[in-house]
Amino acid sequence: MAKRVYTPEELDRYFSDPSYRRSFLPRGRRFLRRNWRLLAALSLAAVALLLWYGHYITQGLPSLEELENPNPGLATKVYASDGAVLDQFAEENRTRIAVDRLPRGLIDALIATEDKDFYNHWGVNLSRFFRQMVINVVTFRQAGASTITQQLARNLYKLQARQESLFDKITRKIREFITSVQIERNFTKREILELYFNVQWFGRGAYGIESAAQRYFNKSAADLAPPEYTLLVGMLQGPGYYDPIRNTERALQRRNIVLHQMIRDGYLTPDQSDKIKSDTLSFHTLEPESRTGIAPHFVEWIRQQLEQKAETYGYNVLRDGLRVYTTLDSRMQRYANTAVDTHLTRFQARFDQLWDWKKYPDILRDNVDKMIRDLDVYKKSKTPAIRDSIVNALRTNAQFVDSVKKAARTIEVGMVAIDPHTGHVKALVGGRNYRNFRYGLNHVTQIRRQPGSAFKPFVYTAAIDNGTPVCYELLNQPVTIPMPDGTRWAPGNFDGTFGGKYTLREGLKRSINLIAVRLILEIVPPKQVAEYAKRMGIKSPIRPYESLALGTEVVSPLELTSAFGVFANEGVLVEPISILRIEDKDGNLIEDNTPERREVLSKETAYLMTNLMEGGVNEEGGTGIAVRSYFSLPAAGKTGTTNDYGDAWFVGFTPHLAAGIWTGFDDNRIKFGSADGQGGRAAAPIFGRFMASAYNDPEIGLPLDYFRTPDGIVADTICVETKKKAREFCPETTTELFNVRYPVGLCDLHTSPNWREEKNPSKVIW
Known about the structure:
Helices cover 44% and strands 11% of the residues. The protein is α+β, with helices and mostly antiparallel strands. The strands form 8 sheets. Strands 2-1-5-13-14 form a 5-stranded mixed sheet, covered by helices on one side. A 5-stranded antiparallel sheet has the order 7-6-18-17-16, sandwiched between helices. Helix 11 (226-235) crosses helix 12 and helix 17 (361-373) packs across helix 20.
């Protein structure tokens, strides 16, 4: 092809006219020269977009440490001393199980259904991956068929959000791709399967195959039968949609698809599949107590203690899969629940008939307003006007007011049983709402109430420990005591009567107020009584006033019961504990607890007080004799009743178990209002019912012992008329030998084996 020859005019224009010169350039180069700024800007924008998108993707990826040390949150389990699981704490209900313990058929079912090429790919099936991406873009929906490793990546590292746009879905798929490849590089196929089975969600709060097996079939995953594990594998596609309890037929149809896949891949024969289909399934439905456990107040107390220790030990209560071994005995706990229910159900019905809200409009209004203020709708109201409208509406809502009335007049309870020799809390009922407890008061550990006459044993202990004989007599006469604030205190007896003299033994058995008051006025000063109470385990502040004799200072049921355990344990205080040991998920010991022990009374003083309080349970006129309607074995204890029957107590013990019961109301303006509110009626029967059940259970195996008499205690033959030792001060015709186990109130015991040689007669207890 001949070259074109340019004229002189064209050459001259070419060199003098830039625009004419550019017309000779190729079209592409002309475009670049004309639009280079735009192209540069677009290029920079594209690079920035790619960098940002790459950074956005990598930001959502797990770190190298997370990839190498995956840590799916494990539930912390709380165990009773007899091995029963009381409850667990978790963000996700998950219990780890080794893949070697799982049925082989379960693994086959998973691979056949979810990823038949699992053993042949390196985390991602490329053909399936690109098919997913195309479907996502073209149909604007999420395609399934991820590999097992991709599903693990998604759930283990939380790559999927609740609401996803198309952009989010594509981004997540890329992240899954990258993470799956990294997982395959770090773990074997067996380890991937174990992680998968421990991570996946199976609905109804169950994370992992072990939790799912427990939740649906009440068994370990290691014990699952083919009809059960094939059903669980089928649920993986949609745990809510294929819920076998709510949508049984749909779940079974999905299970049949799993069986078909297993036949296709040679894991089952058609005959085996038909047999699995013909087997019936029995699902585990939660009993009422299973929803909260048998001891929810105790478990919440354990959780609070674990949270306090978390900073010290560096664990996460909700994620680290701790094993917490407690002192609670699940059998005793069930007996405590039953004793409370049986007694208070009848007692509540009788109280409901007596209580009249028309007499107490202020109390009702205050309780209605308090309940309204506790409602979420009230707390979240943004303006005072909205809050006022809620208050006005609910105050006149009959249904709401009736619910408040029922809640306010509910007789509450706090009951705790402690082994006095070990300090182990064996049972704890923290309130009447134990069947549906979530949050609220624990009426064993979180309340402080006046114990009334249940505090008198500390007054008597101080007197006896300092040498006052149990036969020492005091006047049953009124007294008037000037108080620091200028007022005058004139205590009286419960029944309004007075007169005569009573020994310490008789005064405690009958719980005569004026005997206790004269004891603190004449024998042991209030300061000394307060010191004895603190020494024996009372941690609440105790002010040294004369009114201590009648139990006017507030204490908790836990500390009062623990203090009574000193009598049963021959004068040794063992601080109550609830956690025996804490282990991590691998069984390594984090904490091992041994209770603090210290001797606070002599064996002789502890026994004499026990002997006196046996009288209150065993003898006619004893305030705790109602216990004997249910329980016949050796026991001692003391009732307590506060003014106007507001709080009712019984704290008692056997040689091997101490138990304290408080009954009353959360609003202490509400009173029992009748003699039903005495500790001997409102609380003592719970003690009797509980002890009878616990001692009659051969599995618990409580020994049938008597209280042991120390060597320093001597029994004598007593003269009825003179109340002196018969062989020296009494005619033979009136001599009687009294039963040491159930004494009748005379000077039958003393603490000096050589009483004739005792230099200080005031120290002889006889």
